[in-house]
Amino acid sequence: MENTNFIVLFLNWLLSFDKKALILAASAIGAGFAMIAGIGPGIGQGYAAGKGAEATSINPKAAKHSTMIMLLGAGIAETSGILALVIALILLFGNPLVVQEGDGLVIAVSAIAAGISMIAGIGPGVGQGYAAGKGAEAASMNPDGSRPSTLVMLLGSAVAQTSGIFALVISLILMYANPLVSGHGAAIVLAASTLGAGIAMIAGIGPGIGQGYAAGKGTEATGKRPKLQSGIIKTMILGQAVAQTTGIYALVIALVLMFANPLIKLL
Q1: Homologous superfamily, domain 19-262
Q2: Could you give the angle at the alpha carbon of 173 between the alpha carbons of 45 and 206, nearest 5°?
Q3: pTM of whole model > 0.85?
Q4: Per-domain residue ranges for the chain?
Q5: Which helix (H) or strand (E) is 4 found in, with range?
Q6: What is the pLDDT of residues 111-127, one digit of tens each?
């Protein structure tokens, strides 16, 4: 009973603020949550840089190729950080939630959930950095096979970004087209469902790292045996598709929470 009273008191305290002030405050928190995604690219690019340096020491004559591939892969690993930055900037400078009609609490929670959703970008950032490091390593071990191994790295890294794109889609829906904002039902259920949609997308961290690992190993294998590139790509893509399943589950639950939520009908 005491916990229930605390929740009620907390909600009443939140609703005592002006609607616009509540949304702006939540947007600031959402922007902060979004930038947590920067952890992934930071770790991934650091790994790639370390492998690039190691590759240069192994084969100084191939340093140019190793460095180029390392920088190319590290640039791709930056994608999640850029997407998170875009969401944070929208929340700060072009926030569509401020002028939205609807329940103030749900709109405010939409801003926080949009930021939380982008945390999924940690996974692709780490995974793509791993693939970049393996690309640099492969170029030093077999410079003649650097072209096919780079192709595998790019392809695998692109697939590893899928979870980040899913998170971006949910984040944009939460900001621009969240049906719960104008939905009918208890505000606490609508707000909690909105928050749940954002939290569900954090699951994308796992597939992002896993797919990046597959991309890195595929790149490494192609560098050793370039003639087997086709078969390596098939196996890598198949494995990455399986690794994406939990990310798809999270996406489905996030969409159900927003567009076909059975909980709302129970009240």
Answers
A1: lithium bound rotor ring of v- atpase (1.20.120.610)
A2: 35
A3: yes
A4: 19-262
A5: helix 2-15
A6: 999 999 999 999 999 99
